[in-house]
Design goal:
The structure is a homotetramer.
Chain A (H helix, E strand, L loop, with lengths): L3 E6 L4 H10 L5 E8 L8 H4 L10 H4 L3 E3 L8 E4 L5 H11 L3 E4 L24 H9 L4 E4 L3 H17 L1 E10 L11 H4 L10 H12 L2 E3 L2 E3 L4 E8 L6 E9 L5 H9 L4 H4 L10 E3 L8 H4 L8 E8 L5 E7 L3 H17 L6
Parallel strand pairs in A: 1-2, 1-4, 2-3, 4-5, 5-6, 7-10, 12-13
Antiparallel strand pairs in A: 7-11, 8-9, 11-14, 13-14
Helix pairs in contact in A: 1-12, 6-8
Protein name (chains A, B, C, D): Aspartate-semialdehyde dehydrogenase
InterPro entries (chains A, B, C, D): ASADH-related, Asp_semi-ald_DH_pep-lack, NAD(P)-bd_dom_sf, Semialdehyde_DH_NAD-bd, Semialdhyde_DH_dimer_dom
GO molecular function, one term (chains A, B, C, D): NAD binding
């Protein structure tokens, strides 16, 4: 069967590069168009991009020509690695023109009619597309994936909320350098240092999870009713956001029940065997000193949420540590998995 | 006036090296004896120690002979950089023999009759020495300084507790490599990584602050009545423990009141102009991205507690970030300041 | 066909772990025995080893019992990850008892009757085994692979020596932390630093290449007739030894000829399609800033020698930079490729 | 006596910041003017600069207003931290107008009538100013300091050339991140990596030392007659360029003679007791593993050339390692010492 042709918006940046890397050899999707700024339009991808990933640039894209971001695309599915703000207008135009846009940008994430999707967490939120189309008159649609820091904690909260309810979350992140893009954080700042601040990050982390964990009522999300307080820090790690969580539950739960909820978690992408779905959405580590970003970020090919150090908290109920690969599951891989879910559910056709 | 002769126990380790570095040229104290393991006894300090600090080994100690840790000392003041467990017996023997032992080890910290001292926080706890002597029949005494991670947060909590009361503290540390001593953390573990676990650290951080912030009633400490929950992490930073705190207060306080309490804090060591006291015990940074370990750890010659990012917390009342130099204020420098306070108060004579 | 059963000596260390990682799923060899110190003998591998690699411990070895290093082995092929000195006696005993020992240790490397082997460089040196057996009365044999730093430069020198002769080599290494084993270099030394010294390394790098590049005359190696001067440095990189070389040739050669010699290099392991042979033994990079350790060390699954920045040298003839993965091609992978060559040539039978 | 008023061109960049840091409290010079780009002109220094050094911004400059780089200055002495190319026109205009410009830029370094000065190496080259003024009709002058990587090796070569002559130098650098300015090298490139290339660096390192070590004949420099071949690498170190050198001498010299030449070196800045001169220009380390960038870069307050690992070279005569602080001695500090020499010799008046 012919593969579905896809475009990548903002293909030369670091998230764009991850899309290209992850889509290389994809069983369902085939990269057919790449867009970039006016400056790079017309160049080959090899000329236009400064490839920074640690695997070689896939041969299939080397000689593809970069299109302007305003070019008309003829691919049914579009992955957007555009920066916030730039994304808004371009993605809307494509959705108007009938494209399904799986976007990593933050512009539409919190809009009431736009799914903020993690297939293991809230696959039913795709129903919001009907509302979106009706309200906006679009024949296409925009589906977003969350902030890279919010992703793994939200996955880990899913079974806890299901089983025990969640009331409070105190969250402290230690985020990787790649989260700032390229060139991103200067090495003169990052070396042998921690920067206890990431502009604009804490508000996203404090509000996106509740939307994803919310119930869909009449096509609208009722956000999950708990409060998050976040401290976000940048640490000298290349990839992988480590997050310390203290969690207050609604109902009492023993440590065994909590561990069981985490390790027994099963979800739709695994059931559907989506190509990018990790074998286990949540991987529970039992060693006292795991997960570690460098050693565990590639769990499930970078698509799993890894959790460890689950233990009682003297203030709330439980403490634990999560790890997610920020540019795979937390960015490009998350968008791709969203598209795979839509494809598997017949919402995309070639 | 002749300087007071002091000994350093465990002088060849990293904390011992810091004692030597910080006591070089000290106006009141003069290093007169160094102890080490049986293996190094008899060697010169230059032979026995693998000097790892970034300033040169002081000339005054190069040719001093290492004494066995069991040797009789004739210095009234003894600084202990011994590892926990080793410290217990040796320090007790010295206190019995009339020495004042300022110890960085954890063995006696939580004993009911042993001061756990930060001169800016609880100078009056030195009164416990009378109880200690009476109960143990010692002519000397043991005075301890807290865990390196607990130090800066406790200093910052002092004015908050004074002004508003403290009810709850959620604490997440990002601790420097030097905290593990030498050789300490293998570079193969620490490079481009975070280790979300430090053996034995969280319990100390969760109980030492309340003792220091407690009131002295009839010679005994009534611990401050609040709960701490700690997550401790190791990050690839050489020196300086950065700590994210969420703090619940007993009484409502505006952000301005909190900032004022922090920046107006005055304490005894500054009033007494103790030689190692930083000009300001608490230094408040107003930039959004400070304190940073590498850039701010030497504030007040490594003796200040730096605090920044003070802002409301959605769960508790306020969030902030503290930084303290772990091997200066959090170890050797803390012990020296304790001794300076005792000296200034006439508790030590040459 | 049944796989050949192999043992790994010193299986719990970092090189031992690489052997286990690389042999997992090997098409010809199957790990059947693991040895360790007296202390770990009898434990399972999961109990005995502190696994430090970034991929999970293979399931096949988790429950294997560690044997004492003095145990009698019944595997025809033995891989040795023993430290130098320990290796000497144990490897000799196994060779006496009829085992083929592919050793990563340095003890026998420079012995006149022991092959120091890189299959792309000097496969014919395996003929030395006949001499070895005759002289030592062994029914087995010892075959060694070179020092990790010497490996990639020697591979790159092979075609240059063939085509133009080599007269002089000035070599400056920037070596990865993993080369020091585990725990190896303390993070307190390695962070934000370079250590311009590695004990015992420079002599090995200065004499091993000439043996490998030498001609075999009557079963004995006549070392290649050129001089190497080496400076060895440790840099804060996890894996991958980067080496700057200035090379004086015997015959004039144009830059084009040099580049052609490097990129046209073909060798026996590729011809024989040995399982661990990289598609190309030497990979030539043309970008001005490659190879880089982190980005290029996994070229050819960590088995290729990567070379770049080939340009004229004002003092000797050409300058270039080589990169080799020090614990794959430079250690365990090198030994395995040596065994594969012997297997393919019928020198090993199950 | 009133201090000499000085201006700093390009004051907001990293080299500009070093000038400000090093001139704070200077006994002879007082910062009276700061220039920056059109964009920052009119702002206070605190507003205009993103201070990146690890010591606080000196209070004296916080509220100074940035002048446009085209502004007329009324300070007799001007320090230039301008980038190459920008520097050319501006520095010439200031020299025409009678200012002494001590420049860190590369534009004029190799001009036949411009001193390329290290006060310990070639103080007599200041005589070239007479030629410069005559040829260019300037009433002021431009005096340059060398490339940061060339500085320490040139200082170390001075006594060797004096005593034994120098014929050949093979040089491999491991350069700090700060050498690339700010933001400079992205952390995503620099972390756990080495970049074996620095644009434009090798030619400078290969030709500047000979000019500095050349003799002045009739007001013109006859470059020292030896060849340098350089490999330049970027390593994840914040400050301090480490350089491996292999040196061929003109006359035979024993190791003792070489060590004596290095340790007995005395030079004019030390004799004149220039404020920024290190106590010893060349500091010889005898430990096998020194100098190390992090531990030794502050030798002589960052103004000394540190040398170690002096040993025979199998190819040339001797091998050794040098270290110099690249943004102190190799940039701002070097310029300041040049100005101090001119001041001490009466070439500058307030």
């Amino acid at each position: 069967m012919a593969k579905l042709k896809v475009a990548i918006l903002g293909a030369t940046g670091t998230v764009g590069q991850r899309f290209i890397q992850l889509l290389d050899g994809h069983p369902w999707f085939e990269v057919a168009a790449l867009t970039g700024s006016e400056r790079t339009a017309g160049q080959t991808y090899a000329e236009a991009s400064r490839w920074v990933l640690d695997t070689p640039m896939p041969a299939a894209v080397r000689d593809m020509r970069i299109m302007s971001e305003d070019a008309a695309l003829d691919t049914p599915l579009v992955f957007s690695a555009l920066p916030s703000k730039t994304a808004g207008v371009i993605e809307a135009r494509l959705a108007t023109a009938g494209h399904i846009v799986c976007s990593n940008a933050s512009d539409y994430r919190m809009d009431a009619d736009v799914p903020l999707l993690i297939p293991e967490v809230n696959p039913e939120h795709l129903e919001m597309i009907a509302v979106q189309r009706k309200q906006r008159g679009w024949s296409g649609a925009i589906v977003t994936n969350p902030n890279c820091t919010a992703t793994a904690p939200t996955m880990v909260l899913r079974p806890l909320l299901n089983a025990f309810g969640v009331e409070k979350v105190l969250l402290v992140s230690m985020q990787a350098l790649s989260g700032a893009g390229y060139p991103g954080v200067p090495s003169y700042d990052a070396t042998e240092n921690v920067i206890p601040y990431i502009g604009g990050e804490e508000p996203k982390v404090e509000e996106e999870p509740q939307k994803m964990l919310g119930d869909l009522v009449d096509g609208r999300v009722v956000p999950a009713n708990f409060t998050i307080s976040a401290h976000c820090n940048r640490v000298p790690v290349l990839e992988g956001h480590l997050v310390c969580l203290s969690i207050g539950l609604q109902r009492k739960a023993s440590l065994e029940e909590v561990l069981a909820a985490l390790s027994n978690f099963r979800a739709l992408p695994q059931e559907l065997q989506l190509p990018s779905a990790p074998p286990q959405a949540i991987v529970l580590r039992e060693e006292p000193d795991r997960p570690q970003p460098r050693r565990d970020r590639m769990t499930g090919a970078g698509m799993a949420a890894v959790v460890g150090r689950v233990r009682p908290c003297a203030l709330l109920d439980y403490k634990l540590v999560t790890l997610g690969h920020n540019t795979i599951r937390g960015a490009a891989g998350g968008s791709i998995l969203n598209a795979e879910l839509m494809y598997a559910q017949g919402m995309l056709q070639s």
